[in-house]
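Researcher: Re-running this chain for the archive, since the previous output was lost when a drive failed. Same request as before.
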Amino acid sequence: MKSLVIIFSILLCSLAVNAAKQKLTKQNNEELSSSNVTSSCATISNQISPLIEPALLVGSDSWPTTVEEINKHCELGAKVHKGFKRYGKCFTGIGRQAFNIFNRGLKKYMQNICSSEKKKQDTAEILKCASNETIGGWSKCLNKANQRLDITATNASDPNMVGNICCTYSAVLDCVALNTGSSPECGKTRDPSKFLQSSISFVLKDLIELLCANYETKEACVTNAANQANIADDSHQVNGTFILSPLIKAANLLGEVHADSI
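Model: Regenerated structure tokens:
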């Protein structure tokens, strides 16, 4: 009888040890998998970070004005789009949906420029009409958008956060309209300001329609009184990758917002 008890006790201990080992192995695998994902996301971010500002023509002293230069810019845009597509997998829920819709908008913008030789030539002709003031104004407006997104994603809370992110769209359109224009010798069909405003719409319009029914225009933002505290702080320093870091913060926060709240 004692032998049976001893054998049974040994069997129970063995089962307990095996179960503990399996649990520990599963936990280690999950931690390793999570670590791999985090490492992969960081790698993707590091790869695309130096490409974003050149792709958006931010900080450039001159813009592409020949088909050959447009071709190089299209190649750069394709790399950014591909990197963003991979990076979208780093999010969950509505954060992933929002980030992926943004990236599809980026693809539409690139197709509008790069999908045919005629579009490339048309784009080159339009960008030839950009004055130094237009080039500087474009960088100014996108830097303001970068600051605003970062301030919003860092400080605002649901649902005000959604309103502030949405109102960045109308604010940057307004900024571009005020701070960019066309050289005197160019006609309305070659107006860089209109081209830049339509480019922003290509990238953001679908995302705005998904999340921003109440905040699509500057007037709507005023009417709905989105929380604008500290939103125009020109001294704010953005740490991290241009546009991408604020977008990541915003996408992560949006992932925590229930769809019914948007």
